[in-house]
Amino acid sequence: MRKFAVAAALALASAPVFAQDVKTDFDKSANFGAIKTFSVKIGTSWNNQISEKRVTEEIAQTLTEKGWTRVDANPDALVLLHGATEKQKSLNTFYSGGMGGYGYRGWGGGMGTATTTVTEYLVGTLVVDIFDGKSKNLIWRGIAQDELSDKAEKNAKKRAKAMEKLFKGF
Fold it and tell me: How far is 93 from 117, CA to CA, in rounded Å?
């Protein structure tokens, strides 16, 4: 029973864990108070029209909740969205048998077996750039990165969490 508990703990500990990473930066001299209107567009497509539409609408809703108004022409701020996905790999090694532990003088116990598995997962990155509509200078950038799920509901929760983090101090 003890071997099973140790094996289960090691299997869980070795699963790929990817914490959501969100970073923002802005031009401290930009006058965000003067911005009343915005337009949002896809700058770099991630080749998923459904996801692009969802993200565009979520960004627009977030900025509207912050007091900005979405317009089609002559915005005070232009919001460009850039997306990308990348396959990542995680190596997980599980030891079984009599390997023992590494002691002061070397390995203890008898020989056992080691099994290594490769797990692939997809990581998505979203870059949100906000440009001043008149000067065309970049005034704000937010980057969110997280492991993507094959379940749309999980990705929706991750996007909501990313939006909250991205625009927390906005």
Answer: 6
